[in-house]
Every structure is written in C-alpha cells, then in structure tokens.
Design brief:
about 270 residues, alpha/beta, Rossmann fold, 7-stranded parallel beta sheet, 7 strands, about 55% helix
Length: about 270
C-alpha cells in the first residue's frame, strides 16, 4: 500500500511517515519544504528500504494541488491511505490577531484538507479499500476562547470525518478523525505545553506512540481516536458539561497560559 501524507515535514508528519515506512508501506510525501522532504526521503529509504516519492506543494494553492494529483493519477500505484496532517494555528485572541492569520487557519485546516481529500478520492483505486485520517484535535470537542478559530476548524474536521465515513462506507472507504491533545512538534508547541503546567503535561501525547496507534486504529476501521486516557476522560466530561461553563473554564486556563508564553513569541 502507498500512503499519501500532507505536512510531512512537521513533527507529526515525520512520525507518521516513519511509522508507515516501518510497516513496509510505500510513501508519497508532500510539504512546502523541499529540503525537509529530501531529508526525510533519504532517511526513510536508507533505514527501511521502502519507496518514497516526494512532491513540493502548497496545498492551499489550487493549481499546485491539481499538478500534484495529475502526477499521482499517472502513477501505477495509487494511494491506499491519505493522512491529512497539514494544519496551522496562530496563538492569540481573535480580535488581537491580524485578519490574514485568522483566514490562514481556515484556508489550511479546512479548505486545503477538503481539496486534497476530494482529489484523493477521485484518483483512488476503486477496487481496493481506501483509508482517510484527518487530524482534528482535542480542541475540537470544546468551545475554546483565545483559540476560537482553530478549535472551530478542528470541530469541522471531526464532524466532516464522521459524516464522510458514513457516506462512503459502502464504497470501501473508511474515515477516521485523530483528536490528540498537545503534541511536542515545534519549539512554540513545547513552550505552550510548558506554560500550561500540569495540565499541559497530562494532555500531551508522544509523537511515536500517537503515530503507531493512529495507523493501527485507522487500519481497524475506527472512526475517532483520542490518544491518552486523561484526554479521553476530559472528552467525556466535556460532553456533559454546559458549553458556557466549559468556555469560561477554558478561557481562564488559556488566558493564564498565553500570558506566560505569548510575549516570548513576539
């Protein structure tokens, strides 16, 4: 099987690529970072001996995505799994952020994910099973002040994944939403986790473990995966608590956390 991974140069993308290569899957990796793709390709080919294709692509650009899938449609082996890893968040309150940063979140997390998913479904081998994993977030389960656009974009992906999975299950397509808590993917992410103190530590997930369990659950046909016992417990509690109360508590938490670390990012 060949696995198509967007955002392959990020921390989670790299972890997913390594896990898929470890299982012997061929890879088609895409990202906007050419040097990063070359590094991953060389490393995985050398370590696991699998076939690794790369394609530099800004998936928010319609023409670039069309060109990438034109290349894929001409390949003998078509992707059997799509991992929509690419995503973005800009920390800060809605009114405090520049408008272009707010729109960036929606364009990448929602618009680009839909574009890639639709194209992948078009070129798939309909005689074989096709698996889609969309990276949502634990944030998708709650109304989150100070992360309102990000959380809402991830809620879209969660609902979209569940609905699309039901829509296409009779066409041998399965869709899973991955809803992790914190992930130690970048220096900025690590600062954010540290600023949250104990809760940051408790809700953070290791990249390797998340990658391994995500692929296993996707292959098993799961619809939603929330890594970590604490995160699963929080998801249950959040489902029963009044949204206004949840929003008030989360606002207090994020207001304190961002006051600790956002100044260092300016």
């Amino acid at each position: 099987m060949m696995v198509l991974i967007t955002g392959a140069c990020g921390g989670l993308g790299r972890a997913m690529a390594s896990e898929c290569a470890r299982r012997g899957f061929a890879l088609f990796l895409t990202d906007i970072c050419e040097l990063g793709l070359e590094s991953i390709q060389q490393g995985l080919t050398r370590q696991y001996g699998v076939m690794v294709y790369t394609h530099v692509c800004d998936i928010t650009n319609e023409q670039q995505v069309a060109a990438m899938f034109e290349r894929i449609s001409g390949m003998e082996q078509k992707p059997g799994m799509l991992l929509n890893i690419a995503g973005i968040d800009h920390e800060g309150g809605f009114a405090a952020l520049p408008e272009d940063r707010i729109i960036d979140i929606v364009r990448l997390n929602i618009e680009a994910t839909l574009r890639v998913t639709h194209a992948a479904l078009t070129v798939r081998d309909r005689a074989k099973r096709f698996i889609i994993v969309n990276v949502s977030s634990l944030a998708s389960l709650y109304p989150m002040p100070l992360k309102a656009t990000y959380a809402a974009s991830k809620r879209f992906l969660l609902d979209f994944s569940i609905a699309l999975g039901q829509e296409l299950k009779h066409e041998n397509v399965s869709v899973m939403a991955l809803c992790p808590g914190g992930l130690p993917t970048t220096d900025e992410a690590l600062q954010g986790i540290a600023a949250q103190g104990l809760w940051g530590s408790l809700t953070t997930n290791g990249l390797g473990l998340v990658a391994r369990r995500t692929i296993s659950r996707a292959l098993a046909g799961r619809r939603v995966y929330i890594p970590g016992l604490v995160n699963r417990m929080l998801s249950i509690l959040g489902a029963f608590a009044p949204p206004a109360l949840v929003a008030r508590l989360l606002h207090r938490r994020w207001q304190h956390a961002q006051s600790q670390w956002l100044p260092s990012l300016q």
